[in-house]
């Protein structure tokens, strides 16, 4: 039924039968959905072919009628058919079959475009994990040797994905995206000073795209305090936000605002923010002006400038309740509030960045 409705809408669009508001909406849909745009192109070609075929058929019918009238009125003395008419009579069945095949082919192309459009959503969204080159891995290994620190990663380990995570408990608990660590057999986190720590995945939920890590490393020294809280209340549209993450080997700051209270296609799990985000930002915190976490960066819309989506912080809290149901992790305590509320942005960043980690999956 949806396919038929889409074809009907496309035909009305091509024939100029849409109201101005409908046409604006449909043109935006074409712009943001390559599958729909392809369907419009294919259907336009199909209708054009059918119109040309109809014109040819009408022309040949007219020629036949004129010929018959001329013959009956005696203006044609010899009852010989014109060459074009003879050819038409001889090959009209072949032409009809060819036209039918062309029509069926066009319809099949349209059907394929419709079926492919169902996969367009996944192609329209890009997760913000990061890939590190072999050269980068060698450089990191060299840096470890220069610092005379033992390498945390076995030489045979193969890097898979990278992202960001942020601490929620000084005892070494970190939250990130599930898609950053989902296929990892080893996860290393690195702080803004370049120190690396081994971790254990203690919780992963692909539906929420959330994962919790626990630092399991004797070199780790817990910070005295986590300077931000987790804000589960809703922000208003236009409110200022900022991000910290690792799209490169040093921490990167970004700033923007809340642009929609839902995510891609109205997803209530997420909100939309207008901010610069790149591969590596996955799992990074989205913070409000007071320095409280309001979400966790997850993905972005490829064809829309600045359309970035973050999982809302209330789902971090609900996922944490699942984690704490295991008695081994019942002692996790979230920071109660922001310790940087009245500071300027530069001071906020200085206090917060030590709790933001690069996440490396092997």
Plain-language structure description:
By secondary structure, this protein is an alpha+beta fold. The chain has 2 domains: 2-118; 126-362, Thrombin, subunit H. 39% of the residues lie in helices and 22% in strands. The protein contains 9 helices and 13 strands. The chain has helices at residues 2-14, 20-32, 34-72, 83-117, 120-124, 134-146, 178-181, 313-324, 345-352; strands spanning 125-127, 161-169, 173-176, 187-190, 196-205, 210-215, 240-245, 252-260, 270-274, 285-288, 293-301, 307-312, 356-361. The strands form 2 sheets. The chain has a 6-stranded antiparallel β-barrel with strand order 7-8-9-12-11-10. The chain has a 6-stranded antiparallel β-barrel with strand order 2-3-6-5-4-13. A hairpin with a 6-residue loop joins strand 7 and strand 8 (252-260). The radius of gyration is 31 Å and the shape is elongated. The mean pLDDT is 81.
């Amino acid at each position: 039924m949806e396919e038929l409705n889409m074809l009907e809408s496309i035909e009305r669009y091509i024939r100029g039968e849409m109201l101005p508001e409908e046409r604006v909406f449909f043109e935006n849909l074409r712009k943001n959905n390559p599958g729909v745009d392809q369907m419009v192109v294919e259907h336009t070609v199909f209708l054009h072919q059918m119109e040309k075929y109809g014109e040819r058929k009408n022309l040949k019918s007219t020629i036949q009628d004129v010929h018959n009238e001329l013959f009956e009125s005696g203006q044609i003395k010899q009852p010989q058919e014109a060459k074009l008419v003879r050819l038409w009579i001889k090959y009209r069945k072949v032409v009809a079959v060819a036209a039918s095949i062309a029509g069926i082919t066009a319809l099949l192309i349209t059907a394929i475009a419709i079926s492919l459009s169902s996969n367009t959503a996944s192609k329209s969204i890009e997760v913000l994990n990061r890939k590190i080159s072999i050269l980068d891995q060698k450089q990191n290994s060299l840096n470890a040797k220069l610092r005379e620190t033992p390498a945390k990663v076995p030489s045979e380990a193969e890097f898979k994905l990278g992202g960001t995570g942020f601490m929620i408990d000084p005892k070494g608990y970190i939250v990130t995206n599930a898609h950053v660590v989902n296929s990892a057999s080893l996860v290393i986190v690195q702080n803004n000073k370049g120190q690396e720590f081994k971790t254990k995945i203690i919780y992963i939920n692909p539906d929420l795209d959330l994962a919790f890590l626990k630092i399991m490393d004797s070199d780790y020294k817990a910070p005295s305090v986590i300077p931000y809280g987790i804000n589960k209340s809703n922000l208003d549209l236009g409110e200022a936000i900022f991000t910290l993450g690792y799209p490169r080997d040093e921490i990167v700051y970004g700033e923007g605002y809340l642009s929609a209270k839902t995510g891609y296609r109205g997803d209530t799990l997420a909100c939309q923010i207008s901010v610069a985000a790149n591969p590596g930002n996955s799992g990074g915190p989205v913070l409000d002006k007071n320095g409280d976490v309001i979400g966790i960066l997850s993905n972005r819309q490829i064809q829309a400038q600045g359309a970035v989506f973050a999982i809302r912080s209330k789902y971090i809290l609900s996922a944490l309740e699942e984690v704490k149901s295991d008695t081994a992790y019942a002692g996790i305590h979230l920071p109660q509030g922001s310790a940087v509320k009245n500071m300027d942005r530069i001071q906020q960043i200085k206090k917060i960045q030590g709790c933001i980690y690069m996440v490396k999956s092997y």
